[in-house]
C-alpha cells in the first residue's frame, strides 16, 4: 500500500488527483491539506465526492506528510517552494504539480513568474516529470516537477521533430487554446461564466511562463538552443488544450515519413497517440492521452503539428499519477485507463 | 432632448441600459456613476463601447443627477433605496431597476430581501413598471419600479389567465431557468465558468425574492389572493430566462380558446408575442420581446404556459427604456426594435 | 469471463456502454453491430477509443450474438423490438436500453411512441430494470428493460414519497431539463450547435413517452394510480438531467422527517445519494449516481424534489451495466465507481 | 427608398442580412428566396422575426429580383455563380456574400473550392468588397464580392504592416478559431451540439479556401507576393472569429510605433478599432467592428497581431450592408451602429 498525501487538495488539480487516487486499491490517501478550506470535508468543496470519501481538509501540518510515501503538491506557483523543502526533509517523495521546480534557471523563473526563487538549492535534484524523455530519472527521483499543461502539449508535439532534426530550431510558432479550468478555481469577475462564455481572448501574449519551460526541455532534446513564440488563448470550455504549431522543415519530407518517425518515437509511450486524422479535444477529455496530428505544407515549408490533452489529466493530475507509478515501480498505465 | 443619467453604470443592467441609450438621438447620457470603478472610462469596463462613448464613471454625486430629466438606478437591491430619496428631492424622474420599490409590504421586503427597508415613505408613489397593466400610471410617475426579471416572465405568462379567471389562483407551480448574467457581475468561484459550464443548479428554492412580487401583481389582476410556488435554476448560458408554469384550469377549455384570449389580451402590447409554437430563448435574445407559448393538458386539467425573455432586456434595461418612452410621451417601441 | 455484445454500438448509449465494458477485466466485448457504420472500426466513429480497442462494427448478424452471455440493445425505440425476440431465441440474456419493453400496455406504447408494438408476446417477461425496486427480478431475468433517462430521474425522486404515502398521487408536476446527448447522435439542423447554444426550448410538452412509464412504475409503488404532468426541456449542455418536482403533501411534515425517510429508503442503493444541500448536475457527470435534494414549502403544502443524473450513465449505459452486474451475481457497483 | 432582395434568405448570412435591413427605414426588402424553404414564412425558419416581418420565402424567380436596386446573394459557394450572371443581366446591383467572385484566378478557385468556375467572364467586374482598400471601386461597382470571414479578420490585421513594409512577406503564420455559425445551417452529426460542445478541432489544415484570398489581397497591398500559412479551428461558441498572426519584422520596431501606424492607417475606417489592450470576441459580438491588438516580441523578431470580428456581421452581413451604403452614396455606418 502506497501512503499518499495531497497539499492543496481543494484546487482543481488537487481534486483531480484525489479522484484518480480514490480509484486505486493500492494507494491510501492519508492526508489532504487546503488552507482556505481547512476543517471542511472535501465533499463539501467537491460535491461529486459525496459518499466516496470522508476526508477532512486540514491546515498543512508537516508531520502529517513527511512520513508518507508520496506527497502531491498542488499549490499555485510560488507556494510550492515553501513546502517542498520541508517535505524533502522527511522521507516522503514529492511530486510538485506547480511551476516552482520546472526551470533550472532562477533568472528565468524570476523573469516569467515575477517571483524570487526561495529554494534554489533544491533545483538540482528536481527531475522534470516527462516520462517520454526522463523515465529512468523519474523512477529514482525524490522530487519530480510535473510539467506545465501548455508545455506538455507543445513539448510532446515537437519532441520527435526536434530530436530527429527535421525542423529548424528557431522561428517555431505555438498557438494554444485552453479551457478555463487551467486557471484554477477563480473568484474574479474576469473568469465568471458571463464573461467567458461566447468569448475568446489571448493573454500573456509574449510573457507566458511556460515559454522558457518549452524552450529548455526542447533545447535539451535538440542538442541546441530552441526558440519559440507562444501565444495562449482562453476558450469557452472547461477542460482541454488545443495546441497548433508551425515549424519550418529543414528539407522536404513527406507526411508519411513524419508520421512514421512519430509512431516510432512514441512506440513505448502508452499515453501518446499519433493520429492519422486531425486530433480533437473530445477524444482525450478526462483521459491521460495526448493525441498528435501532423500536416506538411510544401508550399510554405512548414511542418504543422496539432496536439490535444485534458489540461487537468495529462496536463496535471494524470501525469502526476503516471509519475507516481514510475517512481514506485508500477505499470505506467495503472489506474489511468478510461 | 432627454437628459439622462445612470447610477450603477458598470453592472450588467447598467451597461445594457447604456447600450440602449447610446442608440438614441433624442437622449443624452449626461452622467454615469459606478463607485467601484469611479475614475475609469466606461469602455475600460465594457470594451464593446470603445469608439462609441468617452463617458467616465464617477462616484455618485447627487448634484450631477438631480437636475436631469430621468435617472436609471441600476444598483443591487438594498442600494437603490439609499439614492432614490435624494434623486426624488430634485427634479429627475427615476426608474429603479433594483428590487427596493417593487413590494408595497415592508414586511415582505424584509422577509425576502433580508433587509430593513429604509425608505418606506417613498413606496406609495412607486409605480410598478409593467406597461401591460400600468401604462397610464407609468406615464405620470415620478418613480417607476422596474419589474424583476423572473417576475416579468411569470407575470406576463399568467396575467391573461388570471385576469380572465381561467385558472385556480392557488397551487400554481412556476419553474424557471436563467442565464448567468441575471446574477450580475460576479467575482466568486461559484459563478466562474468552470463551475457553471455543463452544470445546472436550483437555488433559493422556497425563498426567492421574486415570489411575493409575482403574487402581489397577479393578486391585483385576479382580484383575489394568488399563491405560487417558484423555483429558479441557474443554466449554462449567459442570457435568457425560460419559465414553465402549471396552473389548474377551473373548467375545461381548448387550447384555441386560450390562444384567442391571450392574443386579445396582448393586442396592444408591442413586445408580447403569443406564439402558436413552443417558445425558445434564442427568439428573444437581445430583444425586448416576451414570447409566450400555451398548452392544455386535459388529462391533468393543467394549463401549461411557457414564456421567454432576455433577462437583461425585457427583464431589465429594455423594460426600463420602454418605461422611459412612456413617461416622456414617446412611442413605446422607440429604440427597442431589432 | 462474461461474453458480451452490443447491438447499436455507434450511438451515444452504445458508445458509453462500450466505454464501461472496456474498463472490465471480467467482460469480453465479442460483437458490436451498427448498421449505419458496418465495416468501420469503432474508433473511427468514436476517436477516443483509439489505441484501446480494435473492434470493427458489423451488420447485425443474429448468430454472432445469440450465443453470448449478455447482449446490450442500444437501438432507437421501435428498432429494439425487431431484434430482441431473435436474441431471446438463443441463449443470451438481453438488456434493452430503448423504450420498446418499458410499457406493459401496448395501447400506451402506441399512443406515446406512435408505433404499433410488434413483439407484445415478450412484454410479460420484460423486467423493468430499476434495482431500487426490482433487484431480485432483475437477477433472474432473461430480458431487462432499462429505464428511460427522464423516467429514472423522476422515479427515483418520487419513489420514497409515494411508497410512504407522504404526497397526493394526483397533480404531481415534473419539470426536467436535459443535455443534448439525450437525443442521440443527431444529424438535423435543429440539433446543431448554432441552434442549441445559448438557447432553451421545451418540447413534447404534453406528449413525452416517458410520462406513462413514470406513472406506471410509481403507481405500482404507491398501490394506487399516480398521475403526473411532465414537461422536458432541451438545455445548452451535453450531459445531464435536472428534474424538479412539485407534489402536494397529504399532511404537514418537516424537511428533516422527509430527509430521514429518504435516507432510510435508499440505505442499500449504492448509487442514490440523498443530499442535504441542493443537487447540481456537475456532481454526477460521468458517474452512475443519482443525487436527490428535498425542500418542504409549508406555505403551499408542496414537497419539492430535485434530482440529477448523467443521462448517458445512470440514465442509460451505467444503469445497464449495473443491471448486468446484478444479473450475473456480481457486486452491483463493479466497474461503475469513479 | 432602396428596393432590395436576398437570394438565399434562410441561411445564417441571409437571416443576418435580413435583420440588418429590417432596421432600416430607407430600405424595402421586396423579395427573398430560399429554395429549400420556398413557400414558408421567414419567421417560421427564424422565429425571432415573428411580428416583425411577414415575408414569405420563394423559389428564386429572376424577374422578382432583376428590377430591384440591390440583391444580396447569400448562397453557398458554387451556387452564387449560377444566379449572379442572371441578376447582372437586369438592372440590379449585386453583393455576393459567397466565395465565387473573390478570386480572380479560376485555377486557384478550382484548386481550393474543388469546383469548375462557370462564370469566369464576370470576374473582371467583381470588386472585392473591402472598403478599407477599395472604397471608391465599391461605390461604382455593379458586382461586389464580399470578403470571406476568416479572410476579413486576417487581412485587416495584416494590411497596415504589409502596406508599410514592416514585416516580411513570407512565412506569415495565421491561426484562427471560429464559432460554429460560420459553417452555416448544418444538418450533420458533426456539427451537432453534442459533438462540438467542450471540443475544439482544426480543419482544412493546409487547404482552406480563404488562403488564396488572403494572399491575393495582401499581395496587392504589399506590391509583392505574400505567402501565408492558415489553420482554422472550430470552437465551442456560436459567433465570432479570433485570429492570431505571427509575422517576422524586417527591422526592430517598438509596439508604440506599430500602434501609431495602425491608428493612422485606419483613421477613416469607422469599423476598425486599433486597441491598446488584447482584443476579445465579446467586444465585437453582434457588431460590425473589427478590433485589432498588437504585440512585438523582440526575442523572436515577431510582430504578433490579434483580430476579432463577428463572423456573421463584419464577416458577412454587416460588411455587405456597409458595402450597400457605399454603393448608394449613404453614410458608411448607417444602420450598423449598436
What report would you give on this structure?
Four copies of one chain form a homotetramer. By secondary structure, chain A is an alpha/beta fold. Chain A has two domains: 123 residues, Rossmann fold (3-Layer(aba) Sandwich); 162 residues, Dihydrodipicolinate Reductase, domain 2 (2-Layer Sandwich), CATH 3.30.360. Chain A is 30% helix and 21% strand. Chain A is built from ten helices and 13 strands. In chain A, the strands form two sheets. Chain A has a seven-stranded mixed beta sheet. In chain A, strand 3, helix 3 and strand 4 form a beta-alpha-beta unit. Chains in contact: A-B, A-C, A-D, B-C, B-D, C-D. At the C-D interface, helix 7 of C face helix 7 of D.
What are the main properties of this structure?
alpha/beta; Rossmann fold; 338 residues; Dihydrodipicolinate Reductase, domain 2; 2 domains; homotetramer; 21% strand; six-stranded parallel β-sheet
Largest interface: A-D, 47 and 47 residues
- Structurally, the number of domains of chain A stands at 2
Determine the CATH topology of the largest domain in chain A: Dihydrodipicolinate Reductase, domain 2
Which structural class fits the helix and strand makeup of chain A?
alpha/beta
CATH class of the largest domain in chain A: Alpha Beta
- pLDDT below 50 for ≥5 consecutive residues: which ranges of chain A? none
How many DSSP helices of chain A? 10
Give a short overview.
In chain A, 30% of the residues lie in helices and 21% in strands. Chain A is α/β, with parallel strands linked by helices. The radius of gyration of chain A is 19 Å and the shape is globular.
Amino acid at each position: 500500500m502506497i501512503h499518499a498525501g495531497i497539499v492543496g487538495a481543494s484546487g482543481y488539480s488537487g481534486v483531480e488527483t484525489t479522484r484518480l487516487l480514490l480509484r486505486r486499491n493500492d494507494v491510501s490517501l492519508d492526508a489532504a491539506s487546503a488552507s482556505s478550506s481547512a476543517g471542511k470535508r472535501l465533499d463539501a468543496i467537491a460535491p461529486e465526492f459525496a459518499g466516496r470519501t470522508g476526508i477532512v481538509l486540514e491546515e498543512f501540518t508537516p508531520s502529517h506528510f513527511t512520513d508518507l510515501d508520496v506527497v502531491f503538491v498542488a499549490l499555485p506557483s510560488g507556494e510550492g517552494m515553501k513546502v517542498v523543502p520541508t517535505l524533502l526533509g522527511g522521507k516522503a517523495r514529492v511530486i510538485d504539480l506547480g511551476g516552482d521546480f520546472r526551470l533550472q534557471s532562477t533568472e528565468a523563473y524570476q523573469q516569467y513568474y515575477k517571483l524570487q526563487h526561495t529554494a534554489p538549492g533544491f533545483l538540482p535534484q528536481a527531475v522534470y516529470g516527462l516520462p517520454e524523455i526522463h523515465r529512468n530519472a523519474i523512477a529514482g527521483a525524490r522530487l519530480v516537477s510535473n510539467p506545465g499543461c501548455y508545455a506538455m502539449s507543445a513539448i510532446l508535439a515537437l519532441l520527435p521533430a526536434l530530436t530527429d532534426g527535421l525542423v529548424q530550431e528557431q522561428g517555431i510558432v505555438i498557438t494554444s487554446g485552453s479551457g478555463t479550468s487551467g486557471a484554477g478555481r477563480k473568484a474574479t469577475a474576469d473568469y465568471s461564466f458571463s464573461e467567458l462564455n461566447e468569448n475568446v481572448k489571448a493573454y500573456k501574449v509574449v510573457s507566458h511562463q511556460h515559454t522558457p519551460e518549452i524552450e529548455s526541455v526542447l533545447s535539451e532534446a535538440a542538442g541546441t538552443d530552441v526558440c519559440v513564440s507562444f501565444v495562449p488563448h482562453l476558450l469557452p470550455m472547461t477542460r482541454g488544450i488545443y495546441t497548433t504549431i508551425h515549424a519550418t522543415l529543414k528539407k522536404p519530407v513527406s507526411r508519411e515519413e513524419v508520421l512514421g518517425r512519430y509512431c516510432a518515437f512514441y512506440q513505448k509511450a502508452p499515453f501518446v497517440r499519433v493520429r492519422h486524422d486531425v486530433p480533437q479535444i473530445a477524444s482525450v477529455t478526462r483521459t491521460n492521452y495526448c493525441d498528435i496530428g501532423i500536416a506538411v505544407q510544401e508550399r510554405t515549408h512548414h511542418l504543422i503539428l496539432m496536439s490535444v490533452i485534458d489540461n487537468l489529466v495529462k496536463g496535471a493530475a494524470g501525469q502526476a499519477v503516471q509519475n507516481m507509478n514510475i517512481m514506485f515501480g508500477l505499470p505506467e498505465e495503472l489506474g489511468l485507463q478510461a
